[in-house]
Design a protein that fits this description.
Blueprint (H helix, E strand, L loop, with lengths): L1 E7 L4 H10 L6 E8 L5 H8 L4 E3 L9 H13 L5 E4 L8 H7 L3 E5 L11 H7 L4 E8 L9 E8 L6 H24 L6 E2 L1
Helix pairs in contact: 1-6, 5-6
Bound molecules: 5-O-phosphono-beta-D-ribofuranosylamine.
5-O-phosphono-beta-D-ribofuranosylamine (GRF) binds next to helix 1, strand 5 and helix 6.
Length: 196
């Protein structure tokens, strides 16, 4: 049984989708903690309501000193001895040192069909480019931002007069299907991409 730590920065809807799926009997992993870089992140209260151990390391306390922030984050994480880290709406860019420490066992969900639209404002960029499809990707985290091996993708049609917010909402519900499916396979040692 793999031990999973989830890192969040906000409301945590992807985190909840992972928890729901791991709560079903035949899952090869179980959650051990939810940690945020923002003590006020709404997702922490939602995880605590589910009986999960929660914690926060406020990145603002480190005044931009990423290695010091990450050293404390790693110290907190190691207390739970996770086998897998899931970034779920975790909005801090991680240093090469942190990535090297967890490489091969750290996943992230990104709201675009990678390698298209790394970074921010993915839905507006897809609409502006006249794409017919948007979507989301789960990838392994490497030192290249949003650049690691893709382990799953879900495609979402872009409709006429679409708006970034409307597309984001449809993609978010696709994320809630994709991320649990990828984690279930990854925790079983299978890196075959999930395509939805
Ligand atoms: C998601 O769209 C995810 O792809 C992006 O941040 C958003 C987080 O949403 N990285 P939530 O906090 O999981 O609801």
């Amino acid at each position: 049984m793999k031990r999973v730590a989830i890192l969040i920065s906000g409301g945590g809807s992807n985190m909840l989708a992972l928890l729901d799926d791991m709560a079903s009997g035949d899952h090869p992993a179980r959650p051990v903690c939810v940690i945020s870089n923002d003590p006020g992140a709404g997702g922490l209260a939602r995880a605590a309501e589910r009986g999960l151990a929660v914690d926060a390391v406020d990145h603002r306390d480190y005044r931009g000193d990423r290695p010091a922030f990450e050293a404390e984050l790693t110290r907190r994480l190691e207390a739970y001895q996770p086998d897998i880290l899931c970034l779920a709406g975790f909005m801090r860019i991680l240093t090469e040192g942190f990535v090297a420490r967890w490489e091969g066992r750290m996943l992230n969900i990104h709201p675009s069909l990678l390698p298209k639209y790394r970074g921010l404002h993915t839905h507006a960029r897809a609409i502006e480019a006249g794409d017919e499809e948007g979507g989301c990707s789960v990838h392994e985290v490497t030192s290249e931002l949003d650049g690691g091996p893709v382990l799953g993708q879900a495609r979402v049609p872009i409709v006429p007069d679409d708006t970034p917010d409307a597309l984001a909402a449809r993609v978010l519900s696709a994320e809630h299907q994709l991320y649990p499916a990828v984690l279930r396979r990854f925790a079983a040692g299978d890196r075959t991409p999930v395509l939805l």
